[in-house]
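User: quick one, sequence for these tokens?
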């Protein structure tokens, strides 16, 4: 029994099979459903009529009414109802929030991204996140009653109940300030996920890991964090800590969980201090600023600037060690560098590719830059919410409507 048919209750496997088919079918006929679900015509028609009566499927005008009828009896045509509800995907980062309201299929209704104060208390952060969710719903012109599923990505490990473990500095409790409890009444399904796991889901759904069963999505901008997929399954762990980055603080040549943005800054300043980068050069002058902008260094390296290439080659060696650790632990075929930094990280990846074969004994994974940019976590959150709507919320909606009608 599929998850969809399980949600529809005992004895309704055929209804669940037709609903499962309808998600990807677009417009379809009973013959299409019958062939896909391996059921008799009468069983398929009964299941379709049940879903139409529940308002989950809509019957379209037949071929004669649509003007394409030629001869014979026109086939009845059906499509998934367009008014089942909406889903929300959220990227609740340390210093930003991105909220997406979407339909359960493929249409985005609202998307906005806003900077947050990273010093907010947990209570203020929680209230801020809830306010932005409500603003997004208002902008989309829908109410909370229409919500099918909510998925929020946070920069913390998260257990299966949506709760983050204690952090020595309180960071995890602040970045995930009781969101599972705060949102539990918002939708039939509420999921709080680690942001790197959602990045992995995004890459496997529409990114550089489509069709790949073994890969790591490496969020690498501000801090390292890995979303790990092995044999087609996203790994989680008892506390949601698979891929957590504290281990990199113990790796010689990496030294901390801070990501490529900070590594580039450190290498530029180290180069100036050692005299390898002249303090009056275009890259050297960056060392005198409060924070070195990694995009400037990466763009300069791509154009062949020698000082920038020196910094990116050394950061590439750091990335190679990170990939070597991930390769030894999980044996992925790909490591995908994700986040906003991925848009211009090619010089670092090129340097890492030269070094990584020496970092591990199994064949080295391919290192790729994500094409999903800063929205990778948002994309994964929406994909997860849509899956929850398909597998849980809509079958529950159909079951509730069918029970009310019986």
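Assistant:
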């Amino acid at each position: 029994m599929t998850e969809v048919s399980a949600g529809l209750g005992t004895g309704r496997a055929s209804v669940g099979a037709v609903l499962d088919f309808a998600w990807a079918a677009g417009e379809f006929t009973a013959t299409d459903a019958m062939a896909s679900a391996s059921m008799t015509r009468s069983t398929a028609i009964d299941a379709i009529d049940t879903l139409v009566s529940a308002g989950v499927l809509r019957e379209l005008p037949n071929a004669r009414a649509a003007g394409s009828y030629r001869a014979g009896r026109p086939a009845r045509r059906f499509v998934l109802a367009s008014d089942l509800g909406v889903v929300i995907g959220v990227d609740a980062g340390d210093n930003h929030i991105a909220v997406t309201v979407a339909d359960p299929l493929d249409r985005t209704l609202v998307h906005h991204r806003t900077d947050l104060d990273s010093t907010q208390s947990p209570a203020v952060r929680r209230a801020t996140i809830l306010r932005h969710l409500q603003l997004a719903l208002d902008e989309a012109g829908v109410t909370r009653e229409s919500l099918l599923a909510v998925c929020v990505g946070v920069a913390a490990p998260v257990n299966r109940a949506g709760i983050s473990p204690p952090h020595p500095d309180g960071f995890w409790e602040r970045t995930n300030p009781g969101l599972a409890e705060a949102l539990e009444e918002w939708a039939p399904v509420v999921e709080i996920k680690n942001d790197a796991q959602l990045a992995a889901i995004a890459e496997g759904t529409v990114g550089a890991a489509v069709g790949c069963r073994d890969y790591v999505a490496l969020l690498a901008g501000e801090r390292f964090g890995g979303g790990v997929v092995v044999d087609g399954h996203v790994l989680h762990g008892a506390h949601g800590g698979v891929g957590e980055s504290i281990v990199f603080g113990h790796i010689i040549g990496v030294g901390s969980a801070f990501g490529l943005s900070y590594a580039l800054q450190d290498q530029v300043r180290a180069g100036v201090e050692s005299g390898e980068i002249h303090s009056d050069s275009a890259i050297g002058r960056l060392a005198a600023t409060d924070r070195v902008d990694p995009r400037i260094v990466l763009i300069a390296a791509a154009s062949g600037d020698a000082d920038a290439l020196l910094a990116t080659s050394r950061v590439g060696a750091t990335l190679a060690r990170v990939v070597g650790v991930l390769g030894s632990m999980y044996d992925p075929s790909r490591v995908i560098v994700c986040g906003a930094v991925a848009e211009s990280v090619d010089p670092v990846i090129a340097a890492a590719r030269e070094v990584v074969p020496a970092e591990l004994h199994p064949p080295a994974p391919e290192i790729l830059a994500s094409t999903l940019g800063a929205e990778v976590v948002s994309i994964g959150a929406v994909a997860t919410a849509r899956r929850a709507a398909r597998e849980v919320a809509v079958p529950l909606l159909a079951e509730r409507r069918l029970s009310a009608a019986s």
